[in-house]
Design goal:
transmembrane helix; transmembrane; mainly alpha; flat; Transmembrane protein 184C; Ostalpha/TMEM184C
């Protein structure tokens, strides 16, 4: 059978393997030449080691994405999974570029941080799609459950009504971070251009401190809503083991940071 766009599932994986090998043949000599040209210090060694990990992680992620595309049997679940898998190459490339050129780190980090918010949105979409497909009467199932009280530190707050109210507020609590994060990232970029950002300096005279506090509050509330959502629907979500998947997502964030 000839290689055409219609039967792309047949030849796409060999093509990706070939392109990866070509990239290795081209990039490794360039890296060695860069090491010889520059004085080999700690920064250069770190950049070279990061490049090795980049060449390892990107093809693994691409292969996982390709496997989903080739075996595209559950689009409503595989779409958010593919979006989440794109997080690894984006974060890897961002970290490598920022390590090589620290002066432009704030600009490439803007794209990375916006994608982090998009990943959390996709993860919530993955859980919602799974529950909707498997339990069409999910609201009725929630209404039949015992009343769920708030977790610490919101124990004193009135409990959300079981059913559609709790489902909506948990989703809204998670998705608010997907709006807050890109918004604060754009503000950070503007502050950097104006010279008032001062990243890493805990002082109330710069913008970075306020943005870090605002981002952390938003993220912690999103995590709280996600944990509450899981606690209420633990039995229904157990087949897809969402805790391990979400921990993997957060590990990508922390390790690359």
């Amino acid at each position: 059978m000839p290689c055409t766009w219609r039967n792309w599932r047949r030849w796409i994986r060999p093509l990706v393997v070939f392109l990866y090998l070509v990239a290795l043949v081209v990039s490794l000599p360039l890296c060695v030449w860069e090491l010889q040209k520059l004085e080999v210090g700690i920064h250069t060694k770190a950049w070279f080691i990061a490049g090795i990990f980049l060449l390892m992680t990107v093809p693994i992620s691409f292969w996982g994405i390709l496997q989903h595309l080739v075996h595209y049997t559950q689009p409503e679940l595989q779409k958010p999974i593919i979006r989440i898998l794109w997080m690894v190459p984006i974060y890897s490339l961002d970290s490598w570029i920022a390590l090589k050129y620290p002066t432009i780190a704030i600009y490439v980090d803007t794209c990375r941080e916006c994608y982090e918010a998009y990943v959390i949105y996709s993860f919530m979409g993955f859980l919602s799609n799974y529950l909707t497909n498997r339990y069409p009467n999910l609201v009725l199932i929630l209404e039949a459950k015992d009343q769920q009280k708030h977790l610490p530190p919101f124990c004193c707050c009135p409990a959300w009504a079981m059913g559609e109210v709790l489902l909506f507020r948990c989703k809204l609590g998670v998705l608010q971070y997907t709006v807050v994060r890109p918004f604060t990232t754009i503000i950070a970029l503007i502050c950097e251009l104006l010279g008032v950002y001062d990243e890493g300096n805990f002082s109330f005279k710069n913008a970075w401190t306020y943005l870090v506090i605002f981002n952390n509050v938003s993220q912690l509330f999103a995590m709280y809503c996600l944990v509450l959502f899981y606690k209420v629907l633990r039995e229904e979500l157990n087949p897809i083991q969402p805790v391990g998947k979400f921990l993997c997502v957060k590990m990508v964030v922390f390790v690359s940071f």
